[in-house]
Amino acid sequence: GLRWGLIGASDIAATRMIPAMRALGHSVTALCSSSAPRATVWAGAHGVPHTTTSVEELLARDDIDAVYISTTNDLHLPHTLAAAAAGKHVLCEKPLALSLADAWSMVEACRTAGVVLGVNHHLPGAATHRRIRELVAAGAVGRPLAARVSHAVALPERLRGWRLRDPGSGAGVVLDITCHDASVTNALFGTPVEATALAVRQGSWEAAADDAAMSVIRYDDGVLAQTHDAFTVAHARTGLEVHGTDGSITAVDVMTQNPVGTVHLHDAAGSREIDVPGRRDLYEVVLEDLARAVCGAGEPTVTGSQGVHALAVALAVQEAARTGRTAPVDLAP
Ligand code: NDP
Q1: Which residues contact 156 (CB under 8 A, 6 or more apart)?
Q2: What would the pLDDT profile of 253-295 be if each residue is shown by its tens digit?
């Protein structure tokens, strides 16, 4: 198993990634956090043997093969560049960066250094989403025409910090959630072309960034994808619908962090539930694909360039919401 260094004493590292690393037999060697006292407490709570406040010191360790970067979104860039320079493989949180130029520079730095870069979009590797892509590729819906993504959730109290309040850290629902939607719809439909959107602040909190957004993304071949992303909706089911000339797929509870949800296919033959084999922890899938890629076998679940393409959609949605005009999706490196 890989030996991991963690950059960022984050909620997601504690709640999802460390458990997934250990379940796969990977080890967690050290943590780098900007705060020494918090690093000590956090590492103690999660059984991480070494701590440092210096990224360089973490990256200089020879008992680390790869780093998992889960700092705030603005810091993914410097942390990934430093890891690449030190020859460590990288699993970076989404969104990769705050600008496309920054995100492409991360892809390029990892490529030049010969290290693997994976992006921690957990949804495309989910058994449900793999099954939906298989169905669409096999022609189960005919020619794809449209998708509707419901990804409106309630932001847990413990996460109501920089995500709502600090634009410099990459706050806002679009960077947080719309990029996940795009990781799913890009994998289904290929090339996103342009987006239109509206975004608002509707939570009962002081927010410096939008906490709810709806967008329409046009893919080439005339496919339209509609998204509803929010931090403000407590009781909605999440879901994905894919509509084509010959059939429709409705998948419920599939835009979540857990290996749950159902997939139904509706066509001329009627409606039926589709079997979803191979359900596994979504984060273990990402880690296992990354470990395999490090050994030269296969690609990360979401590669660096796929991560940039997801960011490109999110940034177009943000731009469209800001300007009130349709914004092009810029996929060029
Ligand atoms: P957190 O707010 O928990 O952590 C982010 C950073 O904030 C940490 O690196 C840490 O800095 C600092 N921090 C954490 N707790 C405190 C505290 N009590 N006081 C002061 N500073 C603190 O973020 P999340 O775990 O929610 O998100 C981290 C990244 O992971 C983001 O990029 C996010 O988009 C992504 N994410 C991805 C998910 C997925 O499913 N793929 C799900 C959730 C988040 P330091 O580095 O100094 O330790």
Answers
A1: none
A2: 999 999 999 999 999 999 999 999 999 999 999 999 999 999 9
227 lines ligand 1 (CB under 6 A): no
Per-residue pLDDT, 283:
98
Confirm or reject: Cβ of 258 under 6 Å from ligand 1.
no
Separation of CA 159 and ligand 1 centre (Å): 8
Q: What is the ipTM of this complex?
A: 0.98
Q: Which residues of the chain have pLDDT under 70?
A: none
Over the stretch 51-82, which tens digit does the pLDDT of each residue have?
999 999 999 999 999 999 999 999 999 999 99
221 lines ligand 1 (CB under 6 A): no
Helix (H, G, I), strand (E, B) or coil at 87: coil
281 lines ligand 1 (CB under 6 A): no
Task: Mark 71-97 as b/e (b = at least 16 C-beta within 10 Å).
Answer: bbbbbbbbbbbbbbebebbbbbbbbbb
Which is the CATH superfamily of the domain at 3-122+284-301?
A: NAD(P)-binding Rossmann-like Domain (3.40.50.720)
Domain boundaries, the chain: 3-122+284-301, 127-278+311-328
Domain 127-278+311-328 in this protein, CATH class? alpha beta
- For the CA of 120, the nearest atom of ligand 1: 41
Q: Is there an atom of ligand 1 within 6 Å of 9 CB?
A: yes
